[in-house]
Amino acid sequence: MRRYVLCIEAQSIVSSVEPFRLVLMQSSFLNGTVELLLMAVIADGPNYGYEITQAVLARSGGRFDLKEGSLYPALHRLEREKLLESYWTEHDGRRRKYYKVTAVGRKTLAARRSEWQTFAEGVKGVLGLEGGPA
Amino acid sequence: MRRYVLCIEAQSIVSSVEPFRLVLMQSSFLNGTVELLLMAVIADGPNYGYEITQAVLARSGGRFDLKEGSLYPALHRLEREKLLESYWTEHDGRRRKYYKVTAVGRKTLAARRSEWQTFAEGVKGVLGLEGGPA
DNA sequence: TTCAATACCATGCGCCGGTATGTATTATGC
DNA sequence: GCATAATACATACCGGCGCATGGTATTGAA
Fold it and tell me: Within a 10 A sphere around the Cβ of B60, how many other Cβ atoms?
């Protein structure tokens, strides 16, 4: 069974109604791109888990609401692969684990970024949209 | 371990060298899009497995070289979901299974197409590229 | 005092694309 | 004439990864 989630594009909505989910988005599209999104956000400055999800949410126009079950394993993978480094801080009694992009990570990010563009062009080409392969 | 494949953008290359593979593409990007690509191709006219892969290959600018292990299960899934219908034909002694898009399939395709565009905009937004969310 | 938000983590499920393999026919190359 | 490639279908297994779930702990608002 395929799962869909609905987006409510309003910041003022009461929080009892699920805010900010993918806009009728087939969530499986995200597969393989989550790490790219995380790297892109962290590359703009060291950041920690919760704030990263907020940044992804904002920068995607409210489209991507990463769950902890996607976020933390992905961060751990990236750290294991030496693309990210982490350090702990204390802030108002709350411990935070900040991540930053390593030198290798930065190169990898640049590569993946262009890979994604190539991929997106390929899809556009098959779909017959503007911006496909020449 | 992440897998990468290399593209050789030449049709004249001898077939002993693997021709036409994804251009340094992280194959996991394809997750969730294969069915969309198949639907898009078949929507332009009934088509059969082998030819569909050739069409996807051509329309993607040589980027997507679907393997049988991806293609046929996907076609079977789509047929099970009533988005595709199939019929057998015989041509030069070779049996072919043609697929065509059902009425429901056409609606689903339209929806998924716009979902993909929304998704792509989201990614662009996070990556800080042109064409992201307003 | 109860709930939401903040902040981290681990585990297990299920989907789905890739590899590998099998079968069969036709076309090509040596 | 025989091997190989291309055409054409199919399935079994593996592995990656997003997500649901559940756990711990602190702060602040209702």
Answer: 26
Burial of B105 (0-12, 13-18, 19+ CB in 10 A): buried
> In this structure, which topology does domain B30-127 adopt according to CATH?
Arc Repressor Mutant, subunit A (1.10.10)
Higher pLDDT, A77 or B9: A77
Core vs surface per residue A24-63: b (16+ CB within 10 A) or e: ebbbebbebbbbbbbbbbbbeebbbbeebbebbbebbbbb
Q: Which nucleotides of D are covered by protein (CB under 7 A)?
A: 5-13, 16-23, 26-28
The overall average pLDDT reported for chain B is 80
Q: Stretch A108-121: mean pLDDT, rounded?
A: 92
The neighbour count for residue B134, using CB atoms within 10 Å, is: 5
Residues of chain A found within 8 Å of residue B51, distances taken between Cβ atoms: none
Average pLDDT value for residue range A20-46? 77
Nucleotides of C under 7 A from a protein CB: 4-12, 15-22, 25-27
Q: Of B5, B21, B29, which to mutate for an interface test with A (greatest number of A Cβ within 10 Å)?
A: B29
Query: Looking at residue A21, what is its pLDDT?
Result: 33
Question: How far is residue A104's CA from residue A118's CA, in Å, rounded to a whole number?
Answer: 21
Residue B15 has pLDDT above 70, yes or no: no
pLDDT at position A25 is 52
**Binary contact (A33, B32; C-beta < 8 A):** no
Structure tokens given for A68: 């902890």
**What are the C-alpha distances in Å from A122 to residues A10, A81, A126?**
33, 28, 6
Find the helix packing angle between A103-127 and A34-43, rounded to 10°. Answer: 130
pLDDT for B27: 64
